[in-house]
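ESCALATION

Customer reports they have been waiting on this structure for their group meeting. Please prioritize. Original submission:
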Amino acid sequence: MTLSKSTLLIGALIIAYLLPIWLFPYFPTQDGVSHVYNAQILTEYRNPDYQFRAYYEINAYPFPNWLSHFALAMLMFVFPPLIAEKIFLSLYVILFPLAMHYFLNAVQPEQNASGRRALQARPSLVILSFTFIYNYLLLMGFYNFAVSVPLFFLTLGYWYRHRDTINVKRAALLNLLIVITYFAHLISYAFILFSIALLSLLHFRRDFPQIFRTGLSILPAALLLLVYLPTSDLLAGEPPEFGLSRVGELLDNLLGLKFLIAFNQAQALIAYAVAAMLIFLAASTIWQNRRTSPGSVERGVVPRHATLSEDFHGTQARARDRPSRYRDSPRAFLILFAILFALYLILPNSVGPGGWVNDRLAILATLTLFAWFRVSHKPPWRQVFTGTVTLLAVINLLYIGVLCKNLNAELREFNAFVHKIEKNKVILPLHFEPKGSSLKVGIFVNAANYYCLDNGCINLGNYEVQFDYFPIRFKPHFETPVQEKEWVQIIHWQPEELDLCEYADNVDYLLLWGTPDEPTVATAIEACYTLIAAQGKLKLFRGQR
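Update from on-call: job pushed to the front of the queue and completed.
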């Protein structure tokens, strides 16, 4: 089978989009290296050469967020930590466009000259989706949510493709995909259940037995909510506040695709160009829909189950109505987008300990809209549009590559003293310039974890130990610097509240990046810790332990 030009182009872009991960030693994120470090704790937990068991315990509860830690831990049985991270991120980059391709082909399958379904679905839309790969949340290091996005669309595409013919085998695979999405991220899991329920109501309309069968087919995976929520911190504390007080800000963020801006304000130009493409597609879709005859089947959409037996669907009338359902398929996704958009506007940015809710919904909602878009079938227009989005994807990649190169230089400066750290020591990191030259991502916030890879060191700035949706926590008897539940947040953002001298006996190394904002912090460090190395903004002190 010969590959089409569009397939080759998408394959080439996938390979190209792997380069920012593999060309440089570090992939610059805020939380990513924290996931790598905690995954290594899982891998080496029973290794007698390390003292992880003396400090940490494993939270083996089946909560969301397990996916990246489990995958990284398994990879580390074979590869070094930073290589394992690159492999995991590469799988994400490969899965993203392939999942979008599968999803779009399930919703709007094209037909070739012989009338059969074509293998290539809306290639220009798949190419446009490349600009979403290196989004703000990925670069924040939210690896679990990042990989949950393609899993969301892969799962939704699978259900939509087989929605009329769900049998036991397909229901089992569908539940498996939903369960994997659950272990990636709770938000994508919740909205895949919601999306299937809504689209089932829209597709089957008053066919209540079929709606009931759809609900029954996803019930096993849906029960995971009952496993996690009763023990989750999401239900603790004050209930979330819903409202419209931030509508203006949220509209500006979505229209400007602010979730594509992470490292540099110049990325806004690329985000605006992508937004312009989306607006053009929306206008083009509305125009083409108005030109489509109300009684005709949408061009390029072929009923997949017109020959299904009457006993499966109930009546011949329902089978005759199948073309109208296919014609209305993209409109159902427009309704889904509208609901996700409304939730984006009214939901708070944080629910319990989970944050960035609006940004997460913005990504899911925007990519869902791709299912509604119609690209002109006229060759000149289609070729021009495909060329334009390909150029945009390439420009985005080149700029991401340049930014990664520049930030790697800063991370190399930060990691200059890694070789000075002895094995199985306790490190207290204090950072006072968390972002470096990055616009929104604090590349130094968790960078002390680089000092703890492959040497069994204990990082007192390990923020994951505070939350019930991560697998590593300190043991109950561990003496914390501050008697607060989220004491690591104080280390990161309020170091002036620490009694650095009193806690010096518990610290082997104090790693300082930047100049302390409070003179009392600098005074305490000089009085109770011994400077052993200094280079630019980086200083390494020895504690009194």
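Sent to customer with the following note: DSSP finds 22 helices and seven strands in the chain.
Escalation resolved.
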